[in-house]
Amino acid sequence: MGTSRKARERPVEHDGRTDEPDKRTLRREFLAVRNRLTADVVREAGGTLAGRALELPELAGARTVAAYVSVGSEPGTAALLDALRARGVRVLLPALLPDNDLDWGEYAGPGSLARVEHGGKMALFEPSGERLGPDSVTAADAVLLPGLAVDARGMRLGRGGGSYDRVLARLERAGARPALVVLLYDTEVVARVPAEPHDRPVHAVVTPSGVRRFPGA
Questions:
Q1: CA distance linking residue 80 with residue 107, whole number of Å
Q2: Residue 122 to residues 9, 93, 136, 172, 182: CA-CA distances in angstroms?
Q3: For labeling, which of 106, 116, 157, 193 is most exposed (least CB within 10 Å)?
Q4: Strand partners, 143
Q5: pTM of the prediction?
Q6: CB-CB neighbours of 125 under 10 Å
């Protein structure tokens, strides 16, 4: 089954009325759809996403990119990480701290990753080398964000751990203005997701079918 069939499926849409599902309910809905994807679909989508993302001017001119290692049925990032590194880009990857904040380390190829268990949470692949500190993300020219959905305003629905809320707040405090890009499947670009005052819109979303920009971000 290819990604084209998935792209034609009706996305989960919510119109922003007061009776819209809350974030927890929406997360369960989007995760349920992802969990039904086959390994072949996830792999194919990851390769297509890498090609789309590499065409972004924000990545073409970037010297440092903060990214992440996809796990499970997330849109795959492995091909993109290796392509960025092949370009000579410095790629920073997160390491989850006990308080859900993120430290960072440099990606030096697949052999530089270690599988780390975080209690009852999902196991993550993290950089095994030197830790650079939570503030190192402020040097990034672009930040690739994980997510479950994005809406027409560029508002992102994350997994709920708050790690990237801290990253975005840290960037704002530092006066850093990297390009914020979220990688998703086509069905995860929806009309509206719930947003809170501290939520910050992304600049662009990359899906297997293309790129959508949010000028107001």
A1: 12
A2: 28, 16, 24, 28, 20
A3: 116
A4: 66, 180
A5: 0.86
A6: 17
